[in-house]
Amino acid sequence: MLLIPCPYCGPRPEIEFVHGGEAHIARPPVPADVGIEDWTAFLYLRTNEKGVHAERWRHTHGCARFFNALRDTTTDQILATYKAGEARPGAAAVKA
Amino acid sequence: MQTFSALELFKQGLAGQSGWRPQWRRPEPKAAYDAVIVGGGGHGLGAAYYLAKQHGLRNIAVLEKGWLGGGNTGRNTTIIRSNYLFDESAALYDHAVKLWEGLSQELNYNVMFSQRGVMMMAHTVHDVQVFKRHVHANRCNGIDTEWLSPQEAKAFCPPLNIAANMRYPVLGASLQRRGGTARHDAVAWGYARAADALGVDILENCEVTAIRRNAVGAVEAVETTRGLIRTPKIGVSAAGHTSVVLGMAGVRMPLESYPLQALVSEPIKPVFPCVVMSNTIHAYISQSDKGELVIGAGTDAYTSYTQRGALHVTQHTLDAICELFPMFRRMRMLRNWGGIVDVTPDRSPIVGKTPVQGLYVNCGWGTGGFKATPGAGHTLAWTMAKDEPHPINAPFSLDRFRDGYLIDEAAAAAVAH
Known about the structure:
The structure holds two protein chains of two kinds. By secondary structure, chain A is mainly β. Chain A has two helices and six strands, in the order βββαβββα. In chain B, helix 2 (about 40-55) packs parallel to helix 6 (about 185-195), helix 2 (about 40-55) packs across helix 9 (about 375-385) and helix 3 (about 85-105) packs across helix 9 (about 375-385). The chains are: A mainly beta, B alpha/beta.
């Protein structure tokens, strides 16, 4: 079980959280203006990164807020967590 | 190929069992092949076998980054069934079951296919309604599924607890008698041996590191840890690592890879006559011929490539097993492990062409690919040989996500995601 550092509540066990899929996939502001290929990419295509992966989590049984995490999918180690809306931390933050 | 038969066994017995030869060669990679399969699991080896046997492509290779059948082929709970809801899925999975039925004879290799029946338990009113719908849909498609009352279910599987005071009481079950199990390793080995006999090169410890494309975008070679291999056709059957391999050709896939766990108990005498699955409370159980209870758990919450998972996932499954089968409460578990399963948004596989010329894919089997091994290999081989979809895999194209023709088998896929 992962120990996940919620940016609002601190470290909590994984069972308090719900995984929210890949982070930083923005919904197109006007879907009607989006072509079929881009819409398919938005709905279905995922990076499925083997390595450092930016993903959303929701602390359902805590503060109930969404936040993002950087996790290495080859080790499951969480390298950083940050609030929703913030930019993905750079490589320096990951190493720290 | 050294054929297995009673006579051969007798002759080898007289010779002190000293005349058995390795079941497949260990060739060095050639500089070029007519086609290459990436992934030496049951699906990939099956595709290679059918390419050689039915389509006459003998100058082909299977590239496996580890050892044969060491991925999901060796990590699943070996359940075989075809009771899927939609016509497209019923056709695909029943195609596989029909191939399973003749596979030991076809390969001259005992894959220990045992049609002991697969029973899926219903615990809620919703389950009952959904399962009955599945039963009716299956029967319309010629698939032998039937509805059982709790008493009939207990008669079919005596260890089952049908007490009314369970947290999730058994309200009924759907049973596919043609369903069952097979020996997972034997499937990979049987296909490998038969493909090798037809001239297919099986290259273990050969990981693909890059895919080269020519000026018009078609594939022309794969770079591997054992050197460059030129080929005009690549079939990717890499399960959880499909996104990684397809990424080498610049193709983004509608896939996410999750760990799926399984475990086995200590071996005991035969007590469990069939396969029991329960989607609602996450329990999948059968008994292997060695005597171990083979138990399937759920997927973890997050995507990962670690081939392990969290303990609370298996614990949850064992809670359900102990409730459904109280006689197993004092059993000890011997081993547990994880496999990386590639899950599509509609829980149906992707088998067919990709936007890149010469690149074919067989993936997205998610939590239930073992049952489809012969069918997946067979239809992928067809598609690679003819460069067009087989009628059975045509609905399972990559384009269905763009075109909106999803085949939503989330209910039939059974493992909760």
